[in-house]
UniProtKB/TrEMBL annotation:
UniProt-listed InterPro entries: PhoX, TAT_signal, TAT_signal_bac_arc
One Pfam match: PhoX
Name of the protein this chain belongs to: DUF839 domain-containing protein
Biological classification of the source: Bacteria, Bacillati, Cyanobacteriota, Cyanophyceae, Spirulinales
The species this protein was found in: Spirulina subsalsa FACHB-351
Length: 724
């Protein structure tokens, strides 16, 4: 594999800890061979890596000139998996949701416990195709799909179309949210459900009809309870209907589960008024879209400011339907990491998974006494939220998101895409603007001195409004725009690991071009980074930190570790990283017949197809092989593997397989096609690969023409020994 730039600099006598992301990447052409057959002993990993379409070793081109993908979860020899639950299976009085993401297992006794699962979104076309097959029901899907975009909220009560759309929106929302199921391990190592009284669903419409509203804590509650809102009033005060867009998450040391509401903007309108209140539901219309952008909040009359939070539940309490802790901020949450030590304040980290999103840290006002005490949940009711300011030299500091923080906007010239969204200077109108010239940002700074000048209300309401508008307030405060921070996890020593998925610009924004660079100084680098962050004095409440790269995505020939788009990460008991990739479905196996277009090399975003399907990786975090990546598994067709989580004895790796068949839906009669890929081996030698790519999926049933279904599996060794 490519030798890490860190080692190259060490050879020259330079200190890796003071080097920027871009300058730490491997220089092109500096490579070392990676012998797959020796990997089990070479890295001490205990398994023989699976064979990918991407060559990770120099030589043997003939073995890669043809490659056939299979529609299955591919694991190393000696490993197997069991399907625990799939979309449509019964859970309490509801069903197992769609596109399962974060998975948490909390042991309640030997060989038994609660599995908590997040359900992120529905894949429009495939969900619509397979809903009658899996759920056994019919909806007016074709009729409503043909209507296109609709403001159903504004239609009168009793309208026939409104009733049909509302029924569809409710079914969509039932397939999002959270689920708790009880499990037991059998004598042969397999896991089975026990269907206990704690099994339940918390959906996108919990509370709408059943009274199971979600609760909330923190300053935003003052905004929810205001009687003179500038914007929309849902009439529920601090009661919240449901949770949706539940993506990654985290398991607290005290035995509760946190689930992140990520792309909530697909269902409700994201920007808010200056007092933190919502725009009316009509601002986000409803449609049956090909992907996940449906606007379900429109027919259901949801207030947008109540979504985009971190939700905590206690799986063991059947009456707990979730609490949204507003001190953690409202943004496109992706995962949560806990830094909890007795005698210190509680630190909680989360990233905003959008292009140009930020890394955040909550610090509690009070200190932790007993790390395992469930009373620690109360620590989230008072504290402060901070955003990370990364410096190119490997240092950084935390900036508070409060009324006293000076306005010092991120400049468009600082980010690779040249655009920064800021709160609309016309504060009476609310919403946001997209700034593309530095002078606009400078004028914004001259108009508003502090974040408190941007928001209205008494001190508590103003703080609540800042937290509700956290992403745009963070841009106004100059907090670093980053490269889609998709996971945050803290090891036993207090080191924070962050998966930055992609560094290319998008319509939402883009990362700081001085910080997020590829191996050749490319400020629009697609393949991603895994970064380590250490607080000063190993203190969760520290206001400064240091950071460095652990592993770099990309092709081995250009210094990458062989993966693209790192996403969820899990730590084993040895402190090593297990990572799953998040290449977009449209990019997976997209043909690359040439690496040049119009005489210029293709940008990295056009090379993602080379990497094949999304995959599972093992990455040592210490020793001479730290940062090297070993492929452990390959996902089924058109899917994303998410939420890896180890059982306490390390014998089981729970994993969610999300959206198999997301583009082509049901794989009909074993259909496949052959595509061309201009590949390289680590020494830079190019060759053409013919790759057989199945179209659609029949996983997990795997019978001809089976509907693809998202599902959670339990991975284990055949001999039931520890995986890690």
């Amino acid at each position: 594999m490519g030798i890490k730039r860190r080692d190259f600099l060490a050879f020259l006598g330079a200190g890796a800890g003071t080097v920027a992301l871009g300058s730490m990447a491997t220089p092109k052409g500096v490579t070392m061979p990676f012998n797959m057959e020796r990997a089990a002993s070479y890295g001490g990993i205990g398994f023989n890596p699976v064979r990918l379409p991407m060559p990770l070793e120099t030589g043997n081109i003939e073995a890669y000139q043809t490659f056939a993908l299979v529609d299955d979860l591919v694991l190393p020899e000696g490993f197997t998996y069991d399907v625990i639950a799939a979309w449509g299976d019964r859970v309490g009085n509801s069903r197992f949701g769609y596109n399962n993401d974060y998975v948490s297992f909390l042991e309640t006794g030997p060989n038994e416990g609660y599995l908590t699962v997040s359900f992120e979104y529905i894949s429009g076309n495939t969900w619509r195709q397979t809903y009658p097959m899996v759920i056994g029901d019919t909806l007016a899907l074709t009729e409503v799909h043909q209507q296109g975009s609709m403001d159903v909220f504004s239609l009168p009560q009793g309208n026939e179309l409104k009733a049909k759309v509302r029924a569809i929106a409710e079914e969509m929302m039932i397939d999002m949210g959270l689920g708790v199921i009880s499990l037991r391990r059998n004598g042969d190592g397999t896991w089975s459900r026990t269907y206990s009284s704690t099994d339940r669903r918390i959906t996108g419409i919990s509370g709408l009809k059943d009274g199971h509203y979600l609760q909330s804590t923190g300053p935003a509650v003052a905004v929810f309870n205001k009687t003179n809102k500038v914007g929309y009033e849902d009439g529920l005060k601090d009661k919240i209907i449901g949770t949706f867009a539940n993506c990654a998450g985290g398991t607290s040391p005290w035995g509760t589960v946190f689930s992140a509401e990520e792309n909530f903007q697909n269902q409700v309108y994201e920007p808010v008024m200056a007092d933190g209140s919502s725009f009316p539901p009509s601002q986000k219309t409803f449609q049956i879209h090909e992907d996940d952008d449906h606007g379900c909040g429109n027919p259901l009359g949801l207030a947008g400011n109540k979504y985009g939070w971190m939700v905590e539940i206690d799986p063991a309490n059947p009456n707990d339907y979730g609490t949204k802790h507003t001190w953690l901020g409202r943004y496109r949450h992706e995962a949560v990491g806990f830094f909890a030590q007795a005698g210190k304040k509680l630190g909680i980290y989360s990233g905003c998974d959008r292009r140009g999103g930020h890394l955040y840290k909550f610090v509690s006002q009070e200190t932790v006494r007993n790390v395992k005490d469930k009373a620690n949940s109360r620590l989230l009711q008072n504290g402060a939220l901070y955003g990370a300011k990364f410096n190119p030299d490997g240092t950084g500091r935390w900036i508070a998101l409060n009324a006293e923080t000076p306005v010092d906007p991120v400049l468009p010239s600082q980010v690779s895409g040249g655009m920064v969204p800021l709160p609309n200077p016309n504060r009476q109108a609310g919403d946001i603007i997209r700034v593309t010239a530095d002078q606009e940002a400078i004028a914004f700074k001259q108009q508003f001195k502090t974040l408190g000048d941007l928001y209205t209300g008494n001190p508590t309401e103003k703080q609540g409004a800042i937290l509700i508008d956290a992403h745009f307030a963070a841009n106004a405060a100059g907090i670093t725009c980053t490269a889609r921070p998709e996971d945050t996890i803290v090891d036993s020593q207090g080191t924070l690991y962050i998966a930055f998925t992609s560094g290319v610009p998008g319509s939402d924004g883009s990362p700081d071009k001085a910080v997020f660079q590829g191996p050749n100084g490319d400020s629009q680098y697609e393949h991603g980074w895994i970064v380590k962050l250490q607080e000063r004095g190993n203190d969760p409440a520290a206001m400064t930190f240091r950071w460095e790269i652990l592993s770099l995505g990309g092709e081995p020939a250009t210094g990458g570790a062989g993966f693209s788009n790192p996403d969820n990460i899990e730590l084993d008991q040895g402190g090593n990283v297990w990572m799953v990739s998040d290449m977009s479905t449209s990019s997976q196996n997209k043909a690359v017949p040439s690496r040049v277009k119009d005489g210029q090399p293709l940008p990295t975003k056009d090379l993602v197809g080379l990497f094949g399907n999304n995959s599972i990786w093992y990455i040592p975090t210490s020793g001479i092989h730290a940062g090297e990546a070993y492929p452990f598994g390959i996902g089924p067709m058109e899917c994303e593997c998410t939420g890896p989580f180890f059982s306490p004895d390390q014998q089981t790796l729970f994993l969610a397989v999300q959206h198999p068949g997301e583009i082509h839906g049901v794989r009909l009669n074993g259909q496949s096609e052959i595509r061309q890929f201009a590949m390289t081996i680590p020494d830079g030698t190019e060759f053409m690969q013919q790759r057989t790519v199945p179209l659609g999926s029949n996983w997990p049933g795997k019978r001809p023409n089976d509907p693809p279904k998202p599902a959670v599996v339990a991975i284990r060794r055949v001999n039931n020994q520890p995986i890690a």
